[in-house]
Amino acid sequence: DAGITQSPRHKVTETGTPVTLRCHQTENHRYMYWYRQDPGHGLRLIHYSYGVKDTDKGEVSDGYSVSRSKTEDFLLTLESATSSQTSVYFCAINNDLYSNQPQHFGDGTRLSIL
Amino acid sequence: KNEVEQSPQNLTAQEGEFITINCSYSVGISALHWLQQHPGGGIVSLFMLSSGKKKHGRLIATINIQEKHSSLHITASHPRDSAVYICAVHSPIQGAQKLVFGQGTRLTINP
């Protein structure tokens, strides 16, 4: 299995607080992705990174920011959490942006905003 | 209308039955992925297809590019196959490797 670790695995917090989720990989893969998964929706891309300090927005990026200061870590930050951001968040990695290689997923972070 | 539609959304069957899950998409694609998500959340890639058919054990995936349709088949189904199966397409229109996901099919195999 690809070495991807998400932390924390579960978090409960209050509306208006900042939250940071971490994705750590040991595969030295160039590309990293953050998705959210909600009932009635498929996985939706929040942000992705194509290298250190190189990131771009996905389809549901409002309210989220990301940072990648080193290859192995991709951080997702909710600056001021809202109840609509209650979701399960998945990190994924792969090593070739333009090929059709599968992405490898982390185990997910279940985030509840009260 | 979603760009990737799966059917059925839920499927319950008895052990040993032949299972078919369908995926239709409306965009041009360069590849289609089938993923499996077990209770507890982990997502693993089962197949990546750009044409024809692929087989791995009891799982078979087919794709018809002209009809924009793919199917995932499970032969001799077993309770351990119970999971959510997700179809995702890699569309070059989206740029880079931005996958577009279906909503998933929840499969339950009863002993």
Protein described:
The complex is a heterodimer of chains A (114) and B (111). By secondary structure, chain A is an all-beta fold. In chain A, 0% of the residues lie in helices and 54% in strands. Chain A has strands at residues 4-7, 10-13, 19-25, 31-37, 44-51, 54-57, 64-70, 73-78, 87-94, 104-105, 109-113. In chain A, the strands form 2 sheets. In chain A, strands 2, 4, 5, 6, 9, 10 and 11 form a 7-stranded mixed beta sheet that branches. A 4-stranded antiparallel beta sheet of chain A has the order 1-3-8-7, with no helix packed on it. The mean pLDDT of chain A is 92. The model of chain B has no long low-confidence stretch (mean pLDDT 91). In chain B, strands 2, 4, 5, 9, 10 and 11 form a 6-stranded mixed beta sheet that branches. A 5-stranded antiparallel beta sheet of chain B has the order 1-3-8-7-6, with no helix packed on it. In chain B, 0% of the residues lie in helices and 58% in strands. Chain B has strands spanning 4-7, 10-14, 19-25, 31-37, 43-49, 52-56, 59-64, 69-74, 83-90, 99-101, 105-110. With 111 residues, chain B is an all-beta fold. At the A-B interface, β5, β9 and β10 of A face β5, β9 and β10 of B.
**Main sheet of chain A?**
7 strands, mixed
- Major interchain interface with per-chain residue totals: A-B, 27 and 25 residues
What is the rounded distance between the termini of chain B? Answer: 36 Å
Helix content of chain B: under 10%
Sheet-strand content of chain A, in percent, reads over 45%
Instruction: Describe the largest sheet of chain B.
Output: 6 strands, mixed
Rg estimate of chain A, integer Å: 13 Å
Envelope shape of chain B = globular
* Quaternary: heterodimer
Q: Which percent range fits the helix content of chain A? A: under 10%
Classify the secondary structure makeup of chain A into a structural class: mainly beta
